[in-house]
Specification:
By secondary structure, the protein is mostly helical. Helices cover 70% and strands 0% of the residues.
Length: 380
Amino acid sequence: MAVSSPTLAAVPAPPTRSAAPAPGPRGRLLALDGLRLVAALMVCLYHYTGRGGTVSASWHTNPAHVFPVLSRAAVYGNLGVQFFFVISGFVICMSSWGRTLGDFFRSRVARLYPAYWVALLLVTAASLALPAVVRPVRLDEFLVNLTMLQQPMGATRVLGVCWTLWVEVRFYVLFALLVVLRGVTYRRVVLFAAVWTTAAVLCRSSGDALVNQVVMPEYAPFFVGGLALYLIHRFGGDLLAWGIVAMSWLLAQSAATQGLWGPHPHRDPYVVVLVVTAAFAAVAAVAVGWTRWASWPWLVTAGALTYPFYLVHEHLGWFVIRVLHRGLGLPAWPTLAVTVAGMLLLAWLIHRFVERPLGPRLKRALKDRKLGSRSPRLGF
């Protein structure tokens, strides 16, 4: 990963190379959409059957007693978040190629906020209807949550899963300021990956909370691995790119095992390593083109549902489980199936009637400004 590597020097950032057509065959991207839904379903099963807490009240007992076999696998479902981060590194590098910083900013805002605001409204309404599942939300909490910056503000999260959005936002900011601002090229992505990896390793011993917030040592290897896999997808594999992937995987499995097994010894550390390895391997298969055969049109819909499904499934799912299982007496397995299907249907409704009409309008509104001259470098 040294910046003086002859491999890196052999891939400069000339216009012809940087402008190479991406993102490649459509089947690869469709497969990536399918992987996103798999990651979301992993997290969903963890929240419904792999943990205790509020969901235990909805099932009227610990889910491990209701689903003794499924629960043993679902306890690893929260690793779907790290799976998301690998995919996110791949997708963000792909979608930012050839775009200005303004384009990048508008695309992220239009993608993240419309569905997020609707999810906040729905969960807040649920908190008023059934406080036993969702603690009633105060007005000040709801308002600060609209910004998606509630965590650094020290405010209560309305959506339990939105902590991952704060991780994603920090990744976007780092990548935008250090790579997108000057234009995305092979060289700049590699240098970014090298510097971020080095900083992530060093800051683990710094003890500085601010540095840790910026560098995110526990999540950086997943994003960096995804970035390198996109370089392989776009330019073909070489020792440098695969070396970044290998280094990222080695650091990622260590971070995941320390974070998810050390404090929770009921998990098997070997299974944690296996799941992290499978996540990297799945995205690598997309990168090298082994998933070209996965060209089913329904994967487009699967990818579109992933984000709204991820936002609404936790608290609203607990709400539905409590109503169906405890209130109406529906058996556990049908309750689980109906709840997952219902959350997917709700995600489709949000995508169809919120994201599709409002996302493009928000993007256009952010672009059609009348503030004088436009900065050619920033693209605003």
